[in-house]
Amino acid sequence: MHNEMEVRFLSLSGNESFARAAAASFAAQMNPGIEELSDIRTAVSEAVTNAIIHGYDQNMDCIVTMQMEIEDDDLTVIVKDDGCGIGDIELARKPFFTSKPELERSGMGFSVMEAFMDSVNVQSEVGAGTVVTMRKHIRHAN
Amino acid sequence: MELNAQKRGPRLSVQLSGELDHHSAEQTRIMLDTLLRDVTVHELVLDLSGMTFMDSAGLGVILGRFRKLSMRGGKLIVKGMNASVDRIFQMSGLYAIVERQ
After folding, report:
1. A129-137 and A119-125 beta bridge pairing
2. Which of A104, A111, A113, A120 to mutate to test the interface with B (most CBs of B within 10 A)?
3. C or N terminus of chain A, fewer CB within 10 Å?
4. Rounded to two decimals, what is the model's pTM?
């Protein structure tokens, strides 16, 4: 089975829950297990939150794009922003690293994505934006 | 995010219900810190049984309150984690820092 979707939404923190719900709802057709669905929600939440807080530095009038693709049992989720980009991707991915300690962030965003998805690829250009591509093979059917 | 608090002696029990993400984190932090202004609180018990979603923003809120209590020699206890909250606590190593009941 092949399927694709794309949603675009404003960089409002209230849209984090919308993105999670949209992702879970689209992935549901793969008959994932409860745990797999929860992993997808959490990973999407992290990527979208990063786009809003870091990519757009909390400017609320920018666009976050989420694309999803299903190829049989393989799910790809892409979260894109046209924000400030990440200077040092390796550092950004380190557990507990945060560029905004004043926001009391845990610095675990990328670690969570890595733990809950099979692969996480980050492409970023300073001043141009960031594309996070996450893949997950769905094993458990309900 | 909904919050219900009850204080008994040095122990403050707070029931958190709903979703704890970046969007709800600030409000939750402000509500918890308002309660923690009471310096007689030395033990914060967070009942998470009504929590339907938590991501790393939630971890930030819990770690921040843990630090606050540690500075006054107090402790933070978590309880009632559902499977998905438990999963993020496990992977982040949070259980090495806070007590679970």
Report:
1. antiparallel
2. A104
3. N
4. 0.95
